[in-house]
Design a protein that fits this description.
The chain is an alpha+beta fold. Among the domains are: about 45 residues, no CATH class; about 80 residues, Thiolase/Chalcone synthase (Peroxisomal Thiolase, Chain A, domain 1), CATH 3.40.47.10. It is about 30% helix and about 10% strand. The strands form 2 sheets. Strands 1-2 form a two-stranded antiparallel sheet. β3, α5 and β4 form a beta-alpha-beta unit. The radius of gyration is 29 Å and the shape is extended. Keywords: Fatty acid biosynthesis, Fatty acid metabolism, Lipid biosynthesis, Lipid metabolism. This is Beta-ketoacyl-[acyl-carrier-protein] synthase III N-terminal domain-containing protein. GO terms for molecular function: acyltransferase activity. Belongs to the thiolase-like superfamily. FabH family.
Length: about 200
């Protein structure tokens, strides 16, 4: 029975009619054995959590803090990373020619001095192929040795996804792939998904 607050009160000593005393085990009836006050105090002292058990304001910098559990477990690691950027660079001064702003105003509020923009025949899918090739070079892995390609972005090039195109253009002939259209959180979702595939 649960109280209105959602907290279950301690069980009453009385046993309902459906839990009459029988010889041997009593199926369907769960009750923990009586616990002494000393055992309760001992159990409370052993309770742990991820938060620090002491006041952080009085802990010296050299004192170790409890470690949080790892999100990506042992058994997988990043061995290569690649990136690619569009060739066209637009500075804040370029923007100020057709928008009422200045380099100082933008830089003071955002820290941005220039940005890269797709132009001409460049596509996000093409940049993905370049980044994948550079990641393979860094990892010293041949495209034929890749088992899985996860395309973790959203692109207007193909609303149904571009993993197949990246697979073909990079040369991953023995791999399968699929799209994770998670946009901003794509890297995190992709990392977790890849780790599950590696461990599985």
């Amino acid at each position: 029975m649960v109280a209105a607050s959602g907290i279950a009160p301690p069980r009453a000593a009385a046993v309902s009619t459906c839990a009459r005393a029988r010889a041997g085990n009593r199926p369907g009836f769960l009750r923990s054995p009586p616990v002494s006050a000393a055992a309760k105090a001992s159990a409370a002292a052993q309770l742990r959590c991820c938060a620090s058990a002491v006041d952080d304001s009085v802990v010296s910098p050299a004192a170790p803090r409890p470690r949080l559990p790892r999100v990506v477990g042992m058994g997988s690691k990043l061995i290569g990373s690649g990136s690619a950027t569009p060739s066209l660079c637009i500075s804040n001064d370029d923007l100020s020619k057709f928008v009422e702003t200045s380099d100082e105003w933008i830089a003071a509020r955002t820290g941005i001095r220039n940005r890269r923009v797709l132009s001409g025949g460049e596509t996000l899918g093409g940049l993905s192929v370049q980044a994948a090739q550079r990641a393979l070079e860094m990892a010293q892995v041949r495209p034929e040795d890749v088992d899985l390609v996860l395309f973790c972005t959203s692109t207007p090039d193909d609303l149904f996804g571009g993993a197949g195109r990246v697979l073909a253009e990079v040369g991953c002939t023995n791999a399968f792939g699929f799209d994770i259209t998670a946009a901003c959180s794509g890297f995190i979702v992709g990392l977790i998904t890849a780790t599950r595939f590696i461990k599985g």
